[in-house]
Amino acid sequence: MKAAPATIQFIAATPQFAVPDVVKAAEHWRDVLGFEISGYWDGERVVHSPTTPPFFAIVRRGDVQVFFNRAETGDARRPRAEGGYDAYFQVSGIDALAAELRGRAARIVEGPEDRVYGQRELVVEDCNGLILAFGEETRS
User: Fold this and answer.
1) How far is CA 136 from CA 57, 116, 140, in A?
2) According to the model, what pLDDT value does residue 3 have?
3) 137 three-class SS
4) Residue 8 Cα to chain centre, angstroms
């Protein structure tokens, strides 16, 4: 007798970016984008106040995490398509988020704007040139 197939459910996706300075990236996401720094890793352990450049960091806001790896050779990002994003975050409260990020002096590229595909989007650029979109569903 065959076993019933397991139910598959995707739970989350975690963007992971290679950046030249992990601490600078994590602190920018904390100070400007409102995330918390979960920790830095030096290769063997978690360090909360790095004295040497860590190779990895995690930031978190709500249930969303973002990982940063130290790029060994400068800017390791690949070019994105024209008008594309490096990451897209589904949120609620997009207008409040826009006001918060303006107050934190975030570089807002666009929005919030209603899109024809049923999202209200805010587009922001971080300290490494990453283009981040935050979207809230407008259709019910």
Assistant:
1) 27, 13, 11
2) 72
3) strand
4) 25
pLDDT at 136: 95
Do residues 112 and 94 make contact, with C-beta atoms less than 8 angstroms apart?
Answer: yes
List, for residues 71-94, the tens digit of each pLDDT value.
Answer: 876 655 567 777 889 999 999 999
Contact 66, 17 (CB under 8 A): yes
The number of residues making up the chain comes to: 140
Distance CA(34)–CA(9), nearest Å, equals 29
C-alpha distances in Å from residue 45, one per residue of 18, 26, 29, 109, 120? 19, 17, 22, 37, 40
Tokens describing residue 89: 């975050």
pLDDT of 99-130, one tens digit each? 999 999 999 999 999 999 999 999 999 999 99
Q: Is the dihedral of CA 116, 120, 126, 130 positive or negative?
A: negative
CATH architecture of 87-137: Roll (3.10)
Pairing assessment for the beta strands 119-125 and 56-61 based on DSSP bridges: unpaired
Report pLDDT for 51.
Answer: 63
Q: What residue has token string 């409040």?
A: 96
Domain boundary assignment for the chain: 16-70, 87-137
